[in-house]
């Protein structure tokens, strides 16, 4: 396989340092993980021919479980490419894990950076050097109760439009049965899943890749919020349609907007807190007026005679 099995030396293009990795580290992960994944998981793979064998490419996938990166990586490797993920920069400081990430050429994402373009500079470098970059546009495992894709973040679209790399939409299904997302919704399909790891019986990882998303209508446009939002929506629509094909179900007409739901919940909680505070601030109503003596209420003034 062209991208998966050969070690590509760091490139120097007009003095620009290339994307660095160790062919030895990559080979080690293949030797260890490939037979393990073949043994642990069953497979239903479709559309591997849509993954280009060479050149910078973005694989944009849905995210339903913390275990689906391995299933997706297996699919991409067997399609002819070595997968390169974007990982939190803090993981690169963890002993051994950091060594594996650096050695295999994974990309650090600096989430605390105020400049999104700066945060993804290493990803752009890798794409220009012909790597196969794995993106989860949702940014985290889906919070949709039925595990459909959420609205996406714009990083993948930005990278594609800046570098000209193709975006191949990929949908996966089955990893949620192996390891449900521990922070998932407590209702719908997500709420019905038992938390923890469930390797037995062997789970089938269903993965499908579609043709590259057509982003040609955004070529030459400024990379402003509207352009990136529209391109991201096109990418997410392609992923969602593929997932509908895998599941044999009709996707929802509107994607789950996690940020909007969080804001609505925050507002509801604030309104409830404000209502409670207002209730506490109202003084208790006074009892019947006038002194009482010997169990007799004080005489009330009589109405004037007419």
What do you see in this structure?
- 38% of the residues lie in helices and 15% in strands.
- With 306 residues, it is an alpha/beta fold.
- The strands form three sheets. A seven-stranded mixed sheet has the order 3-9-8-4-7-5-6, sandwiched between helices.
- The model is unreliable at 1-14 and 291-306 (pLDDT under 50).
Concise overview:
This protein is of the alpha/beta class. It has helices at residues 2-5, 23-40, 68-78, 97-103, 116-119, 121-128, 155-163, 175-178, 188-192, 225-247, 258-281; strands at residues 12-13, 16-17, 42-46, 57-61, 83-88, 107-109, 132-135, 166-173, 204-209, 292-293, 296-297.
Outline: globular
How many distinct beta strands?
A: 11
Largest sheet: 7 strands, mixed
Q: Could you give the order of the helices and strands?
A: HEEHEEHEHEHHEHEHHEHHEE
Low-pLDDT segments, ≥5 res: 1-14, 291-306
Secondary-structure content class: alpha/beta
Helix content bin: 25-40%
Q: End-to-end distance, in Å?
A: 111 Å
Spatial extent as radius of gyration: 28 Å
Average pLDDT score: 85
Report the β-strand fraction as a percent range. Answer: 5-15%
**Strand order across the largest sheet:** 3-9-8-4-7-5-6
Task: Figure out the total of helices.
Answer: 11
């Amino acid at each position: 396989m062209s991208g998966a099995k050969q070690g590509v030396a760091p490139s120097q293009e007009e003095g620009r340092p290339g994307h660095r990795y160790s062919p030895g580290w990559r080979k080690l992960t293949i030797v260890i993980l490939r037979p393990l994944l073949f043994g642990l998981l069953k497979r239903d793979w479709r559309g591997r021919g849509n993954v280009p064998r060479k050149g910078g490419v973005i694989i944009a996938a849905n995210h339903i479980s913390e275990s689906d990166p391995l299933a997706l990586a297996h699919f991409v490797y067997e399609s002819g490419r070595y997968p390169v993920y974007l990982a939190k920069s803090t993981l690169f400081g963890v002993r051994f894990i950091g060594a594996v990430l650096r050695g295999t050429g994974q990309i650090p994402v600096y989430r605390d950076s105020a400049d999104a373009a700066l945060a993804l500079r290493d990803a752009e470098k890798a794409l220009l050097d012909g790597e196969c970059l794995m993106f989860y546009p949702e940014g985290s495992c889906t919070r949709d109760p039925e595990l459909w894709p959420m609205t996406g973040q714009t990083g993948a679209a930005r990278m594609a439009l800046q570098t000209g790399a193709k975006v191949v939409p990929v949908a996966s299904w089955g990893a949620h049965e192996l390891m449900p997302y521990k922070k998932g919704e407590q209702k719908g399909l997500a709420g019905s899943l038992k938390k923890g790891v469930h390797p037995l019986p062997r789970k089938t990882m269903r993965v499908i890749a579609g043709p590259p998303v057509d982003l040609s209508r955004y070529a030459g446009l400024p990379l402003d919020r509207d352009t990136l939002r529209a391109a991201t929506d096109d990418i997410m629509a392609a992923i969602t349609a593929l997932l509908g094909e895998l599941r044999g179900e009709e996707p929802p007409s509107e994607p789950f907007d996690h940020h909007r739901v969080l804001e609505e919940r925050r507002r509801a909680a604030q309104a409830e807190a404000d209502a409670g505070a207002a209730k506490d601030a109202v003084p208790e109503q006074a009892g019947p007026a006038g002194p009482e003596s010997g169990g007799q209420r004080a005489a009330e003034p009589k109405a004037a005679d007419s």
